[in-house]
Amino acid sequence: MYGTEAYGYLLPSFVAAARAGMGFVERQVFPDGERYLRVLDDVRGRDVVVLGGTIADRDTLEIFDLGCSLARSGARTLTLAIPYYGYATMDRATKPGEVVTAKTRARLLSAIPPAAGGNTALLLDLHTEGIPHYFDDPIVARHVYARPIVLAAIADLAGPGVRPTLAATDAGRAKWVESLARDAGGLECAFVYKRRISGEETLVTGVNADVRGRTVIVYDDMVRTGGTLAAAARAYREAGAARVFAVTTHLLPTEGTVEKLRRDGAIERLVATDSHPLARPAAAAAPGFVEVRSVGPLLGAVLGEPVV
Question: In the chain, how long is the greatest CA-to-CA distance?
Protein backbone atom coordinates (compact mmCIF):
# COMPACT_ATOMS: atom_id res chain seq x y z
CA MET A 1 0.00 0.00 0.00
CA TYR A 2 1.36 3.38 -1.04
CA GLY A 3 0.46 6.95 -0.16
CA THR A 4 1.09 10.22 -1.90
CA GLU A 5 3.40 12.62 -0.11
CA ALA A 6 0.55 14.81 1.15
CA TYR A 7 -1.35 11.83 2.60
CA GLY A 8 1.44 10.30 4.67
CA TYR A 9 -0.49 11.32 7.80
CA LEU A 10 -3.41 9.04 6.90
CA LEU A 11 -1.46 6.03 5.67
CA PRO A 12 -0.77 4.29 9.04
CA SER A 13 -4.44 4.03 10.09
CA PHE A 14 -5.43 3.02 6.56
CA VAL A 15 -2.78 0.29 6.45
CA ALA A 16 -3.77 -1.03 9.88
CA ALA A 17 -7.48 -1.25 9.00
CA ALA A 18 -6.76 -2.92 5.66
CA ARG A 19 -4.32 -5.41 7.26
CA ALA A 20 -1.89 -4.34 4.55
CA GLY A 21 1.82 -4.05 4.05
CA MET A 22 3.41 -0.65 3.71
CA GLY A 23 4.98 0.15 0.36
CA PHE A 24 7.94 2.48 -0.03
CA VAL A 25 8.59 5.26 -2.53
CA GLU A 26 11.81 7.18 -3.06
CA ARG A 27 11.19 10.87 -3.75
CA GLN A 28 13.46 13.66 -4.89
CA VAL A 29 12.99 17.11 -6.40
CA PHE A 30 15.46 18.30 -9.02
CA PRO A 31 16.74 21.90 -9.04
CA ASP A 32 14.31 22.84 -11.81
CA GLY A 33 11.34 21.51 -9.82
CA GLU A 34 10.98 18.25 -11.70
CA ARG A 35 9.97 15.38 -9.41
CA TYR A 36 11.64 11.98 -9.16
CA LEU A 37 9.59 8.99 -7.96
CA ARG A 38 10.71 5.39 -7.64
CA VAL A 39 8.69 2.47 -6.23
CA LEU A 40 11.09 0.38 -4.16
CA ASP A 41 9.05 -2.84 -3.93
CA ASP A 42 8.41 -5.76 -6.25
CA VAL A 43 4.63 -5.65 -6.82
CA ARG A 44 4.33 -8.37 -9.45
CA GLY A 45 1.15 -10.37 -8.87
CA ARG A 46 0.20 -8.28 -5.82
CA ASP A 47 -2.95 -6.31 -4.97
CA VAL A 48 -1.79 -2.71 -4.70
CA VAL A 49 -3.40 0.46 -3.32
CA VAL A 50 -2.46 4.11 -3.78
CA LEU A 51 -3.88 6.44 -1.12
CA GLY A 52 -4.10 10.11 -2.06
CA GLY A 53 -6.49 12.99 -2.61
CA THR A 54 -6.70 15.27 -5.62
CA ILE A 55 -6.12 18.34 -3.45
CA ALA A 56 -4.09 20.05 -6.20
CA ASP A 57 -2.93 19.15 -9.69
CA ARG A 58 0.52 18.20 -8.39
CA ASP A 59 -1.10 15.62 -6.11
CA THR A 60 -3.38 14.34 -8.85
CA LEU A 61 -0.33 13.81 -11.05
CA GLU A 62 1.43 11.94 -8.24
CA ILE A 63 -1.52 9.52 -8.04
CA PHE A 64 -1.36 9.13 -11.82
CA ASP A 65 2.42 8.62 -11.89
CA LEU A 66 2.41 6.06 -9.08
CA GLY A 67 -0.56 4.24 -10.59
CA CYS A 68 1.12 4.00 -14.00
CA SER A 69 4.35 2.68 -12.48
CA LEU A 70 2.61 0.08 -10.31
CA ALA A 71 0.39 -1.17 -13.15
CA ARG A 72 3.36 -1.43 -15.52
CA SER A 73 5.35 -3.23 -12.82
CA GLY A 74 2.88 -6.12 -12.83
CA ALA A 75 0.39 -5.36 -10.04
CA ARG A 76 -2.47 -7.86 -10.02
CA THR A 77 -5.05 -5.22 -9.08
CA LEU A 78 -4.74 -1.47 -8.58
CA THR A 79 -6.98 0.54 -6.25
CA LEU A 80 -6.88 4.32 -5.99
CA ALA A 81 -8.23 5.31 -2.57
CA ILE A 82 -9.15 8.98 -2.90
CA PRO A 83 -10.46 10.43 0.39
CA TYR A 84 -11.00 13.85 -1.18
CA TYR A 85 -11.82 14.22 -4.86
CA GLY A 86 -11.39 17.91 -5.63
CA TYR A 87 -12.61 19.99 -8.54
CA ALA A 88 -16.11 20.24 -7.01
CA THR A 89 -16.36 23.87 -8.15
CA MET A 90 -16.15 22.75 -11.78
CA ASP A 91 -18.21 19.57 -11.83
CA ARG A 92 -20.45 20.79 -14.64
CA ALA A 93 -20.46 23.46 -17.33
CA THR A 94 -22.85 26.40 -17.04
CA LYS A 95 -21.43 28.54 -19.85
CA PRO A 96 -20.26 27.63 -23.38
CA GLY A 97 -16.60 26.66 -23.49
CA GLU A 98 -16.17 26.02 -19.76
CA VAL A 99 -13.83 23.16 -18.86
CA VAL A 100 -15.42 20.59 -16.54
CA THR A 101 -12.29 19.89 -14.53
CA ALA A 102 -13.91 17.14 -12.47
CA LYS A 103 -14.44 15.24 -15.73
CA THR A 104 -11.04 15.91 -17.31
CA ARG A 105 -9.20 14.79 -14.16
CA ALA A 106 -11.35 11.65 -14.01
CA ARG A 107 -10.34 10.92 -17.59
CA LEU A 108 -6.69 11.41 -16.65
CA LEU A 109 -6.92 8.83 -13.86
CA SER A 110 -8.86 6.54 -16.19
CA ALA A 111 -5.84 6.57 -18.51
CA ILE A 112 -3.70 4.68 -15.98
CA PRO A 113 -2.82 1.34 -17.63
CA PRO A 114 -5.06 -1.48 -16.41
CA ALA A 115 -3.63 -3.95 -13.93
CA ALA A 116 -4.23 -7.58 -14.79
CA GLY A 117 -7.18 -7.83 -12.39
CA GLY A 118 -8.52 -4.35 -13.03
CA ASN A 119 -8.37 -0.83 -11.61
CA THR A 120 -10.75 0.65 -9.02
CA ALA A 121 -11.20 4.16 -7.61
CA LEU A 122 -12.73 4.65 -4.15
CA LEU A 123 -14.21 8.16 -3.85
CA LEU A 124 -15.41 9.45 -0.47
CA ASP A 125 -18.55 11.58 0.01
CA LEU A 126 -18.59 13.24 -3.37
CA HIS A 127 -20.06 16.72 -3.65
CA THR A 128 -21.81 15.63 -6.86
CA GLU A 129 -23.27 12.12 -7.18
CA GLY A 130 -22.60 11.87 -10.91
CA ILE A 131 -18.80 12.16 -10.72
CA PRO A 132 -18.20 8.36 -10.81
CA HIS A 133 -19.71 8.38 -14.30
CA TYR A 134 -16.92 10.70 -15.45
CA PHE A 135 -14.46 7.81 -15.11
CA ASP A 136 -13.92 5.70 -18.22
CA ASP A 137 -12.94 2.06 -18.72
CA PRO A 138 -10.82 0.32 -17.54
CA ILE A 139 -11.28 1.88 -14.09
CA VAL A 140 -14.36 1.24 -11.95
CA ALA A 141 -15.28 4.20 -9.72
CA ARG A 142 -17.07 3.50 -6.44
CA HIS A 143 -18.71 6.13 -4.23
CA VAL A 144 -17.93 5.39 -0.58
CA TYR A 145 -19.98 7.13 2.10
CA ALA A 146 -18.61 8.35 5.43
CA ARG A 147 -22.04 7.69 6.95
CA PRO A 148 -20.75 5.63 9.94
CA ILE A 149 -18.40 8.45 10.98
CA VAL A 150 -21.07 11.12 10.49
CA LEU A 151 -23.74 9.20 12.44
CA ALA A 152 -21.35 8.57 15.33
CA ALA A 153 -20.48 12.27 15.43
CA ILE A 154 -24.16 13.23 15.45
CA ALA A 155 -24.85 10.92 18.39
CA ASP A 156 -21.86 12.20 20.34
CA LEU A 157 -22.68 15.86 19.77
CA ALA A 158 -26.32 15.42 20.75
CA GLY A 159 -25.47 13.63 23.98
CA PRO A 160 -27.31 10.84 25.84
CA GLY A 161 -31.08 10.90 25.57
CA VAL A 162 -31.21 13.88 23.19
CA ARG A 163 -32.93 13.55 19.81
CA PRO A 164 -31.56 16.44 17.77
CA THR A 165 -32.93 17.99 14.63
CA LEU A 166 -30.64 17.10 11.75
CA ALA A 167 -30.27 20.08 9.47
CA ALA A 168 -29.03 20.92 5.99
CA THR A 169 -27.34 24.11 4.86
CA ASP A 170 -29.83 24.42 2.00
CA ALA A 171 -32.60 22.61 0.20
CA GLY A 172 -30.09 21.10 -2.25
CA ARG A 173 -28.57 18.92 0.50
CA ALA A 174 -31.93 18.08 2.11
CA LYS A 175 -32.26 14.59 0.57
CA TRP A 176 -28.87 13.50 1.86
CA VAL A 177 -29.66 14.86 5.33
CA GLU A 178 -33.05 13.13 5.29
CA SER A 179 -31.26 9.86 4.53
CA LEU A 180 -28.90 10.42 7.46
CA ALA A 181 -31.87 11.23 9.70
CA ARG A 182 -33.56 7.93 8.84
CA ASP A 183 -30.40 5.99 9.63
CA ALA A 184 -30.06 7.88 12.91
CA GLY A 185 -33.40 6.53 14.10
CA GLY A 186 -35.90 8.79 12.38
CA LEU A 187 -34.68 12.20 13.50
CA GLU A 188 -36.54 15.34 12.49
CA CYS A 189 -35.03 17.33 9.62
CA ALA A 190 -34.73 20.97 8.71
CA PHE A 191 -33.21 23.08 5.97
CA VAL A 192 -32.86 26.74 5.14
CA TYR A 193 -33.96 28.61 2.07
CA LYS A 194 -31.08 30.66 0.71
CA ARG A 195 -29.94 32.80 -2.17
CA ARG A 196 -26.25 32.95 -3.11
CA ILE A 197 -24.91 36.49 -3.43
CA SER A 198 -21.28 35.65 -4.20
CA GLY A 199 -18.77 32.80 -3.92
CA GLU A 200 -18.39 33.49 -0.19
CA GLU A 201 -21.74 35.03 0.79
CA THR A 202 -25.27 33.66 0.92
CA LEU A 203 -28.54 35.26 2.02
CA VAL A 204 -30.84 33.06 4.10
CA THR A 205 -34.52 33.79 3.57
CA GLY A 206 -36.15 31.26 5.91
CA VAL A 207 -36.16 27.96 7.78
CA ASN A 208 -38.62 25.22 6.84
CA ALA A 209 -39.12 23.65 10.29
CA ASP A 210 -39.84 24.59 13.90
CA VAL A 211 -36.52 24.31 15.76
CA ARG A 212 -37.43 26.36 18.84
CA GLY A 213 -35.66 24.97 21.90
CA ARG A 214 -34.10 22.18 19.87
CA THR A 215 -30.54 20.92 19.53
CA VAL A 216 -29.72 21.32 15.84
CA ILE A 217 -26.87 19.51 14.12
CA VAL A 218 -26.03 20.89 10.69
CA TYR A 219 -24.42 18.60 8.13
CA ASP A 220 -22.46 20.05 5.21
CA ASP A 221 -20.38 17.72 3.06
CA MET A 222 -17.63 20.30 2.47
CA VAL A 223 -16.49 23.42 4.33
CA ARG A 224 -14.09 25.81 2.62
CA THR A 225 -14.84 29.47 3.37
CA GLY A 226 -17.54 28.55 5.89
CA GLY A 227 -19.94 31.17 4.53
CA THR A 228 -22.78 28.77 3.78
CA LEU A 229 -22.39 26.93 7.08
CA ALA A 230 -22.22 30.13 9.14
CA ALA A 231 -25.32 31.59 7.48
CA ALA A 232 -27.30 28.40 8.06
CA ALA A 233 -26.20 28.14 11.70
CA ARG A 234 -27.23 31.74 12.36
CA ALA A 235 -30.61 31.10 10.73
CA TYR A 236 -31.29 28.15 13.02
CA ARG A 237 -30.24 30.21 16.05
CA GLU A 238 -32.51 33.06 15.00
CA ALA A 239 -35.34 30.54 14.54
CA GLY A 240 -34.99 29.60 18.20
CA ALA A 241 -32.57 26.64 18.29
CA ALA A 242 -31.12 26.18 21.77
CA ARG A 243 -27.84 24.69 20.57
CA VAL A 244 -26.23 24.34 17.14
CA PHE A 245 -23.43 21.96 16.19
CA ALA A 246 -21.97 21.10 12.79
CA VAL A 247 -20.56 18.01 11.07
CA THR A 248 -18.68 17.95 7.78
CA THR A 249 -16.85 15.26 5.85
CA HIS A 250 -14.36 17.47 4.02
CA LEU A 251 -12.79 20.35 5.96
CA LEU A 252 -10.42 22.40 3.79
CA PRO A 253 -10.62 25.84 5.35
CA THR A 254 -9.28 28.94 3.71
CA GLU A 255 -7.27 31.29 5.89
CA GLY A 256 -9.41 32.57 8.76
CA THR A 257 -12.37 30.24 8.15
CA VAL A 258 -12.23 28.34 11.43
CA GLU A 259 -11.59 31.47 13.49
CA LYS A 260 -14.51 33.19 11.74
CA LEU A 261 -16.85 30.31 12.58
CA ARG A 262 -15.71 30.24 16.19
CA ARG A 263 -15.94 34.01 16.61
CA ASP A 264 -19.39 34.09 15.00
CA GLY A 265 -20.63 32.00 17.93
CA ALA A 266 -23.60 30.32 16.24
CA ILE A 267 -21.84 26.93 16.15
CA GLU A 268 -20.69 25.42 19.44
CA ARG A 269 -18.55 22.71 17.94
CA LEU A 270 -17.54 21.36 14.53
CA VAL A 271 -16.67 17.71 13.84
CA ALA A 272 -14.86 16.85 10.60
CA THR A 273 -12.94 13.96 9.10
CA ASP A 274 -9.28 14.03 8.07
CA SER A 275 -10.10 13.40 4.41
CA HIS A 276 -8.13 16.56 3.54
CA PRO A 277 -4.65 17.42 4.88
CA LEU A 278 -5.86 20.82 6.13
CA ALA A 279 -8.33 19.33 8.63
CA ARG A 280 -5.86 18.28 11.31
CA PRO A 281 -4.01 21.62 11.41
CA ALA A 282 -7.41 23.35 11.71
CA ALA A 283 -8.27 21.21 14.73
CA ALA A 284 -4.88 21.86 16.31
CA ALA A 285 -5.42 25.60 15.90
CA ALA A 286 -8.90 25.49 17.42
CA PRO A 287 -8.87 22.91 20.23
CA GLY A 288 -12.26 22.36 21.77
CA PHE A 289 -14.03 23.85 18.77
CA VAL A 290 -12.90 21.59 15.90
CA GLU A 291 -12.64 17.82 16.34
CA VAL A 292 -11.24 15.56 13.62
CA ARG A 293 -12.03 11.87 13.16
CA SER A 294 -10.03 9.64 10.84
CA VAL A 295 -11.37 8.13 7.62
CA GLY A 296 -8.42 5.71 7.48
CA PRO A 297 -10.20 2.82 9.24
CA LEU A 298 -13.34 3.30 7.12
CA LEU A 299 -11.49 3.28 3.80
CA GLY A 300 -9.25 0.43 4.92
CA ALA A 301 -12.26 -1.68 5.87
CA VAL A 302 -13.86 -1.06 2.48
CA LEU A 303 -11.05 -2.92 0.78
CA GLY A 304 -12.33 -6.08 2.42
CA GLU A 305 -9.26 -8.24 2.11
CA PRO A 306 -5.49 -8.06 2.72
CA VAL A 307 -3.60 -5.97 0.19
CA VAL A 308 -0.04 -4.74 -0.19
Answer: 61
